[in-house]
Write a structure and sequence with these properties.
CATH topology: Arp2/3 complex 21 kDa subunit ARPC3
Strand content: under 5%
Order of helices and strands: HEEHHHEEHHH
Distance between the termini: 25 Å
Largest sheet: 2 strands, antiparallel
Helix content: over 70%
Number of strands: 4
Structural class: mainly alpha
CATH class: Mainly Alpha
Shape: elongated
CATH architecture: Orthogonal Bundle
Length: 214
């Protein structure tokens, strides 16, 4: 009986993860996942399935979905970059004139996305009862999204700042202003969307699917 129950749980997990992975692929590879942003950095909804996975299936699954987000992003920036002037910051296999990506491109592309799921999942796991679940999901969604935004933009500034400024055509001295404006224009809305959908979608679905009684 316990063996059958374990198999059913694994099948349910794989089915749920597969559906969320399919949604992740859609928002990564189609225009449905794009938001208007400031300058050449593209805002995205691709963090949302990562947050939903983390809350529904836990921080490990959320981290794995974050890795998938990073992998899909890597493929997009390598083969069909939405903004060539910053593509080298996300993949070592893209060059723009004298500007070439390197190993730090992979760190920028993967690590922040993995941390979305890890942070959202761990913060939600701290909730002890139903009253704490909603604020925990909101905080996890917001902080996970912001961590991604700040680490991506911070990584671009730290490892590719001068190259990015030159490629984009603005003075290096103003790069922090550009990054700050990008956080305001796209990072904060992304975080708000992540927190809202974590509360409005992930928590209710979790309660229904797992029939939680707390």
């Amino acid at each position: 009986m316990s063996s059958t129950l374990s198999v059913r749980k694994r099948i349910l997990f794989l089915a749920q993860f597969s559906v969320l992975l399919a949604i992740e692929a859609i928002v990564c590879f189609t225009p449905l996942g794009s938001l208007p942003a400031l300058g050449p950095i593209v805002a995205t909804l691709s963090h949302v399935p990562v947050i939903l996975t983390a809350i529904l299936l836990g921080p490990v699954a959320g981290s794995l979905m974050g890795f998938s987000f990073g992998l899909f992003s890597f493929l997009v920036w390598t083969f069909t970059p939405p903004s060539p002037v910053v593509a080298f910051a996300f993949t070592p296999f893209y060059s723009l004139g004298q500007f070439q990506g390197n190993a730090w491109s992979l760190v920028i592309c993967f690590l922040p996305r993995i941390l979305i799921g890890l942070m959202a999942g761990l913060i939600f796991a701290l909730a002890k009862n139903r009253k704490q679940e909603l604020p925990a999901a909101a905080v996890g969604g917001v902080l996970g999204s912001l961590a991604n935004t700040l680490m991506v933009l911070g990584g671009i500034w730290l490892f590719f700042g001068r190259n990015y400024a030159e490629a984009a055509g603005f003075a290096y001295e103003t790069i922090l202003v550009v990054i700050g404006a990008t956080v305001l224009a796209s990072g904060l809305p992304e975080a708000a969307i992540g927190g809202f959908l974590a509360v409005a979608v992930a928590v209710p679905v979790r309660r229904i699917v797992f029939k939680e009684k707390k």
